[in-house]
Structures are given as C-alpha cells and as structure tokens.
Amino acid sequence: MPELSPRRRMLVLAICCMSLLIVSLDNTVLNVALPSMQKELHASVAGLQWTIDAYTLVLASLLMLSGSTADRIGRKKIFQAGLVLFTLGSVLCSLAPNLESLIAFRMVQAVGGSMLNPVAMSIITNTFTDPRERARAIGAWGAVVGISMAAGPIVGGVLVDSVGWRSIFWINLPVGLAALLLTLRYVPESRAPKARRPDPVGQLLVIALLGSLTYAIIEAPDSPAPRTLAFGAVALAALTGLLVYEPRRTEPLIDLRFFRSAPFSGATVVAISAFAALSGFLFLSTLYLQNVRGLDALHAGLWMLPMAAMCFVCAPLSGRLVGSRGPRLSLLIAGVATTASGVLFAAFEAETSNVTLVIGYVLFGIGFGFVNAPITNTAVSGMPRAQAGVAAAVASTSRQIGGTLGVAVIGAVLAAGVGSSPYRDVFVAAARPGWWIITACGVLVLVLGALTSGSWARRTAERTALQLQEKEISQPTASRA
Length: 481
Known about the structure:
Keywords: Antibiotic resistance, Cell membrane, Membrane, Transmembrane, Transmembrane helix, Transport. By secondary structure, the protein is an all-alpha fold. The protein has three domains: 1-192, Up-down Bundle (Growth Hormone, Chain: A), CATH 1.20.1250.20; 200-248; 257-481, Growth Hormone, Chain: A. The chain has helices at 6-41, 45-73, 75-94, 99-114, 117-127, 131-162, 172-186, 200-219, 225-245, 262-292, 297-303, 305-325, 328-348, 354-379, 385-418, 423-451, 455-480.
C-alpha cells in the first residue's frame, strides 16, 4: 500500500472511527429503548434478550472469519460490504412489524458489523506505519467507544421520547452512507502478504457452540427441561469438536496453543467477564429505571450518565497507564470498582436510594472505563507480530461472547425471579442474583488481573511465542514436503 499524506491518513482514521461509532452507539442506544419496544411489540424478557443477543451472537461468531476474509480478498472491499449491510439492516430494523422480524434484521446488522470493527483496525494498522502515530490512532479509536457510552443514553432517550424507538436505527443511515462514500474515495485497498486459509468446519462449530448455549440459557425459564438439555448437549458436542479438530489443522480458526500463554488466557476470561457485567448492568438498569421507577427514556438516560461519563474519563487514562506501567494496575482498579458496584446493588439494594444508585453507577463506570484498554494489550503480550492480529481478534470475539452471555444469564435469572408478578413489586428482589453475578465478574477481573500480569505469566507468554515462531518457521518446510 502506498504511503499516504498525513492529512489522508487522518481522514482514513476518521472514516474508520465513524464505523466504530455507529456500531458502538447502536448497542448503548438500544438499551434505553428496550421498555418502549417491550410495550409496542408485546415482548417478554426473553424477547428483549434476543433483540440484544441475536446481534452479539452473530457478531461473535463471524468476527474472525470477516478479519481473515478481508486479509485474503481486500480490506476495503469487506469494509464497504459491512457498511452496506449494517446500514441496510438498520433501515430494516426501523421497519420491523413484529419482534421476530426485528430479531432477524438485527442479525443482518450483525453480519455487517462483523465486517467493520476488525477490518477497520487492520486498515488503521496498515495506514499508520510509525509506532507512535499508530499508538495515537488506536487511542483515538478507543476514545470513540467512550464517546458512544456517554452519548448513547442521552441520544437514545431524546429519540425514543420525541419520535419513538424506531428512530434509534435511523441515525445509522446518514453516518453509514457518509462513511461508505468516503471509503470509496479515500481509503486505499490492502491485503495481507500471506492470508490465513478458511476453516469452514471450525466456523460452523463456533456458531453451533455459541448459538445452542445462548438458546439454552435464554429459553431455560420457559422451555421444557428436555429441550434445554438437548441444546446444552449440542453446545458440549460443538466444544468437544473444536478441541479435537482445531489442533489438527495447519491454520486453525482458533490456535488452542494461544491459551498456554497466561496473559492471553487471562485477557480472554477478563474480556468475557467485563462485557458480561456491562451487558447485564445495562439490561437491569434500563428495565429498573423505566419499568419500576416509571421514568421516560430521556430521564433514564440522564440517570445513567454518571456511569457513561466515568467510562469516558477513565478509558483514555487507563490507556496511558497501560502504556507507562503495564496492564496490572488498570485491571486491579477495574476489578475493585466493578466488584464494589455489584456488592452495593446486591447486598445493599443500591437502586432503592438516589445517593447509592449514583454511587453504584459511578463505581461501575470507573471499573468498565479501566478494563477495556488492558484487554487487547494483555492478549497480544509477548505474541509474535505475525500472530498479534489473530490474538486481538480472539480478544474482540471474547468481548462479544461476554456481552451475549451477560444478557442471556442475567436476563434468565431475572425472568425466573419476576415470573408473572408486576415489575414494581418484585424487581429489586428478582434482580439481586443478577447483581451477585456482576459482582462475581468483578472478582474474576480482579483475581485474573493480579495472576496473569506478573513475571510468571510473562514467562508463559514468552514460551508460547517461541512455540508459535517455531511453527511459523516449520510450516513452509512442511508445505514443500
């Protein structure tokens, strides 16, 4: 790819950030609209779970496939296709006549979304070749997530209250079209020198694992036990298939040897835990503020602003801390703050008092603000440069898996507790197990942050990197033989 002028590079960064903005904003805005969607579409708690999880599930399943396909046939092509699909899916969601159609159209959105974030990161990495420029570009990219967290509840509240929940999908149309036109004009095409080969069997096993596991969890409160157990068995069989099949491939979808690195394994579980806590937190908070306190969408968004504001402030601070002192301190702060927030809600019913509610939101915002930056850094710690992209893709996939499981598990627990009772009467008690799950996620972040960022963990990463490098060297010889 030819060297671009500084102005052109900044324009490419802005275009990539636009794609991240619509994907990130879509998730935060949607949570504020859930109660309105529930009323108009007559949705159950499980139906609301599927509007979120149908998206994150497809996204998690296809992220690595989209990244490797872009490396093979062209990043610009895949990025453009993602913008078209995401924008089209948004329009279809705004027109959905019923809950089933909305869930299907959210899946169309997710197919497009899977082509945006990992591919945009590859474009940024190849556009900014100077390490310092690249670090600043990735910092700006990460700040967009904070912006979407801060703006999402307010934007969603204004749109839902003034126009209706369908309007939350309209905002993706002008941004998506603008990004598409600018990509056509200014983003150069690029490919990987040596693209990874497709792994269709591995891909199908991942889809079967995530899909059947999520279905079993979400539908467990209302489905017959044999059906739930059947989907659980499918998930177990798919996991077994991955563990048996993937190590036999020369270029597997997921190289299981990555997990011999303690920092990589720790980052994977931390990502799942942190994003499970986030998705569960937003799910419980939105339903409580609107269905129990009776707030409209805008005022519910304003109540959640302290959390979003702390995310916005702490995310860049965490990035600088990781750059200067490594990931450990950020992970410890994140674990302590998330755990404290969960305990405040679970043990002291923080939502029943305005003061403790705000404190709980502030603590959670600090925790999530500090956790995001060290995840990717820890995942790629010590990895050979040729494997860093794959490691980062697994970390991104783990985030989406966490988001899916958080809504599935905490929503199922809430649905079982509420039953057929009115929300106002039983919500606080029914949500308590969900808050304890969020507390457990915070404890996991804290413990793994301490265990997987020390000298022992670094040694395991170095050994893993050496084994992966030896594999890279031996592969050409094996292929010639």
